[in-house]
């Protein structure tokens, strides 16, 4: 193997050591699956996954929600296939723990959507169903928010709590959003008790932006009177980010109680075939 050359075997790179102090004939082995601390600090968008995750998710959400809202017959299956494809791409490059988190997120988001939409009756989608892109949509939002939160400033949680608290006080006083007070208490608890308060704050802001975008295009709408207790709210609710934080907390709880599993047989088979190529 000549100087300046390298041989790749799956995710392992073997390169000659460089520099005057390097022993002759020695090789340096780098496992690309485990980034160095410097790499992690310079790329806070999750080193275990390719860097375009966040912009890919943003484009998928922006285009997908707009296409679905147009009402064309071909839009829902196309958007669903694209969203599931993006989720599969993220999971393929993710760590084992993140794959478990995203899997739990899809399952819990599906149950949560069915409860909030059909049982509690807080909102409805354009076609009065649960679109197939919604469960994976929650998972890709979670994946993008977890990466953005690593670059978020440390003061973000305090700023979100302060602004949210001011809104809740004003809205409850004027009576147009009395439901927000309960969710404000829940959100403050998440921020105080969470091991990652920046993720809670990032989810809150990100979710509000997504919900505003979707409701403005009439992809879904929230009822301005909560049906069980008669509490008032807005379309979309400013407090909707607290619901996303609830999902994040449930995901972490589910991952904590589930044992660490080995890679599935399909993934192992693909890895072995790739190693032979």
**How far apart are the first and last residues' alpha carbons, in Å?**
19 Å
Categorize the overall geometry.
globular
* N-to-C series of helices and strands: EEEHHHHEHHHHEHH
Structural class: mainly alpha
Describe, in plain words, how this protein is organized in 3D.
This protein is mainly alpha-helical and 277 residues long. It is built from ten helices and five strands; from the N terminus they run βββααααβααααβαα. The chain has helices at 37-42, 53-70, 75-93, 96-119, 134-150, 156-174, 180-193, 197-216, 240-257, 265-276, and strands at 7-9, 12-16, 27-31, 123-125, 220-222. The strands form two sheets. Strands 1-2-3 form a three-stranded antiparallel beta sheet, with no helix packed on it. Strand 1 (7-9) and strand 2 form a beta hairpin. Helix 4 crosses helix 9 (240-257).
Short description:
This protein has helices at 37-42, 53-70, 75-93, 96-119, 134-150, 156-174, 180-193, 197-216, 240-257, 265-276, and strands at residues 7-9, 12-16, 27-31, 123-125, 220-222. The protein is mainly α and 277 residues long.
Please give the structural blueprint.
Blueprint: E1 7-9, E2 12-16, E3 27-31, H1 37-42, H2 53-70, H3 75-93, H4 96-119, E4 123-125, H5 134-150, H6 156-174, H7 180-193, H8 197-216, E5 220-222, H9 240-257, H10 265-276
Antiparallel strand pairs: 1-2, 2-3, 4-5
